[in-house]
Design goal:
single chain; about 30% helix
Length: about 130
């Protein structure tokens, strides 16, 4: 035959994640909320600490997501921390992605001194 027979040892590529390995927004939201609560409970806003806290929170959330072992997902984590002054804050985003595989989750934290919002995006790598 002109086409060689494929052996069963050859690799196959998944173009969609298996259901149990799919980004689960509710599970991610719980992870984000726990990280925010653990890091920020009892803290007061200080301009010098805010930058450090945002980096530490983003790294902690990303590490927790990696430990879920959702193969071929890339994670983007954004954290915003601000001083609580009674003013409103709006945050928005737009993404161009595959609705079947990609998703996002967010959680918020606030106390008398500060507010924080963290968003995690999971993008499946084809």
């Amino acid at each position: 035959s002109f086409f060689p027979a494929m052996s069963t040892d050859e690799k196959t590529y998944m173009i969609r994640p298996q259901f149990h390995k799919k980004f689960k927004p509710m599970q991610v939201k719980e992870i984000i909320q726990k990280c925010l609560d653990d890091k920020l409970t009892g803290q007061k806003y200080h301009v010098d600490k805010a930058s450090k806290f945002t980096r530490e929170l983003a790294d902690a959330i990303k590490q927790e997501l990696k430990e879920l072992h959702w193969d071929r997902y890339k994670y983007i984590v954004q954290v915003v921390i601000g001083e609580q002054r009674g003013e409103g804050v709006k945050m928005g985003s737009r993404c161009f992605w595959d609705e079947d595989t990609d998703n996002q989750a967010f959680a918020t934290f606030s106390n008398d001194s500060l507010f924080a919002t963290a968003v995690a995006y999971g993008v499946y790598l084809y």
